[in-house]
Amino acid sequence: MDAKLKELATLIKGRDAKVIFFVGAGISTNCGIPDFRSPKTGLYSNLQKLNLPFPEAVFDINYFKKNPKAFYTLAEEMYPGKYLPSKFHYFIRLCQEKNILKRCYTQNIDALERVAGVHEDFIVEAHGSFAKVHCIKCGTEMDSVTWKKLMKKGIPRCQKCDSYVKPDIVFFGEPLPAKFFELWEKDRKDDFTVAIVAGTSLEVYPFAVLPAEISSRTTRVLMNREICADFEDCPRKSDLVMLADCDHTITKLVDLLGWHDDLEKLIQE
Ligand code: OAD
């Protein structure tokens, strides 16, 4: 691992480095937010109280149309604002400050990349966010303050057509935001110095194929507790696989880069 970290640090310190991130729930577990699929601790292992036919139903649009209660039981708990970013989130920000960040594709709906200060031009929230709420039938937008107020009394309904409303989180069975496709069309043709894939099982499509589609001139890095997807099935010779807690990996990496104090400064801000 140390040799791989040194190789990564050399790449990042090189001339005109360009870094792209592909991240998932594992970068937020150290903030106190459970991921989805880790055995025992993941959200999908802990939904017995919701009596779901299958765990992913809580984010399934067809299930939601008939039974929105399951999602709404979790919605308040998941609403952004309660948690602080991890070291990993601040490392993404640090790459922005060093002018080497090119993009951060995230599957997370916790908005912690934004909280850490990453500019929205760099962020692609592939699975949407809580920022806006819409009616699932007529599409009318509901402002978040009204939505939160109604949620306290029960399941919020559209004030125009009385159908259910939901935040613009991408549910299974719904398309990803246009920004995802527009930017990926561009980014997939580009060469980056490194693509850091972190905290994701890469089980959900189309996000899961992004690391496989990244240019062969880009060095892929996996910072995860376990190996997954293309890193296992179709590894590239140049892949740098670092199986550990991603915050521990980042701590060692910033030391090698000589960026320890810069990172601490951002965290203390
Ligand atoms: P998963 O729960 O599927 O995967 C999280 C991965 O992160 C696992 O491989 C963990 O081992 C790893 N992990 C957890 N904590 C870590 C840590 N501290 N350091 C390193 N690795 C760690 O989460 P995602 O891949 O993000 O979709 O899940 C993808 C999508 O599935 C989510 O966006 C969500 C879900 O259904 C929607 O809600 C639409």
TrEMBL record:
Top-rank taxon, per record: Eukaryota
Cofactor requirements of the protein: Zn(2+)
List of residues binding NAD(+): 25-29, 35-37, 107-110, 200-201, 224-226, 246
Listed transmembrane segments: none
Binding annotation for Zn(2+): 135, 138, 158, 161
Free-text cofactor note: Binds 1 zinc ion per subunit.
Active site per UniProt: 127 (proton acceptor)
EC number: 2.3.1.286
EC top class named in words: transferase
Catalytic activity: N(6)-acetyl-L-lysyl-[protein] + NAD(+) + H2O = 2''-O-acetyl-ADP-D-ribose + nicotinamide + L-lysyl-[protein]
One Gene Ontology molecular-function label: zinc ion binding
GO cellular component, one term: nucleus
Keywords linked to the UniProt accession: Coiled coil, Metal-binding, NAD, Transferase, Zinc
Family in the record: Belongs to the sirtuin family. Class I subfamily.
Protein's name according to its UniProt entry: NAD-dependent protein deacetylase
Gene source species: Dekkera bruxellensis
